[in-house]
Write a structure and sequence with these properties.
Layout (H helix, E strand, L loop, with lengths): L24 E5 L5 E7 L4 E8 L4 E9 L5 E3 L5 E4 L2 E4 L5 E4 L21 E6 L6 E5 L14 E6 L6 E7 L3 E7 L5 E6 L4 E4 L9 E3 L19 E8 L11 E5 L4
Antiparallel strand pairs: 1-2, 2-3, 3-4, 5-6, 6-7, 7-8, 9-10, 10-11, 11-12, 13-14, 14-15, 16-17, 17-18
Length: 257
């Protein structure tokens, strides 16, 4: 049994002006009240995650990992929890998955890094445990370009952190998200102070998701690669509402790039 070490002294101003990150330790009780999940940012540039058993008043598991963010999200069934970009199994503290841009159906900016502390705006599981909502303070890729403080909320599978789709947010979040017991509304600390976001419309709205975000095209004067001059990428609707448009396929040509 290893007792968690003391956290580092809070520093002001906190990273990037985010007051939530001034605190180097976070605690979150499980819904059934049997356990408390904690994280400490240590002085040696690491962090410790631990599980405290309420009935026995004992820390029965702890683990040191690389320092990122002290944000926490605990699954409703207590089987797993998210700390920073990593998903842990509660009973063993094994790393089950890690947030990664390669697990996304849409493009992230070049060099996007989920382990950067200020890039993690918070996370929360849906009350039924079916999905994990994770806020990334990373500007979405779009044309025309999004404003510099825009961010995104990714909807992930709770066991593998596979990103199913993303929702653009009007501003950066500051480390903490909570959700109502009915799963209808989320509340988050944000750049302006407080953000209220309904979750009921996430799946009821039309959601256009391309089959792939990579296409190989080629063009030459002699026409040798004519068959690779264009390609078609199907765009599927993952939402409940009807997706309207001239065509549900996106055509790309080498001449247009």
């Amino acid at each position: 049994m290893v007792a968690p070490s003391a956290p580092t002294t809070p520093q002001l101003p906190p990273p990037n002006g985010l007051m939530y990150f001034a605190s180097k330790s976070q605690l979150q009780a499980t819904l059934d009240g049997t356990k408390i999940i904690g994280v400490n940012q240590l002085a040696n540039n690491t962090r410790m995650v631990f599980v405290f058993d309420v009935a026995s008043s004992t820390v029965f598991a702890s683990r040191n990992i690389a320092a990122t963010s002290p944000i926490l999200a605990v699954s409703p069934d207590v089987s797993e929890f998210l700390s920073g970009p990593m998903l842990f199994e509660t009973s063993t503290l094994l790393v089950l998955a890690q947030q990664n841009a390669t697990n996304s159906p849409f493009v992230f900016p070049s060099g996007a890094n989920f382990t950067t502390q200020t890039n993690q705006g918070g996370a929360v599981f849906l009350p039924d445990g079916s999905e994990l909502l994770a806020a990334c303070n990373i500007v979405p890729v779009q044309s025309p370009a999004a404003k510099s403080n825009a961010s995104q909320l990714s909807i992930d599978t709770p066991d593998s952190l596979l990103i199913q789709f993303g929702v653009q947010l009007p501003e950066n979040l500051s480390g903490k998200i909570v959700i109502t017991s009915d799963g209808i509304t989320t509340y988050a600390l944000s750049q302006s102070g407080f953000l209220v976001a309904p979750t009921t419309g996430l799946k009821t709205s039309p959601i256009a998701v391309p089959d792939t975000n990579v296409a190989l095209l080629a063009n030459d004067q002699c026409g040798v690669t004519a068959a690779q001059n264009s390609t078609v990428i199907p765009v599927r609707n993952q939402g409940a509402s009807k997706l309207t448009g001239r065509d549900r396929k996106s055509a790309l040509t080498a001449d247009s790039l």
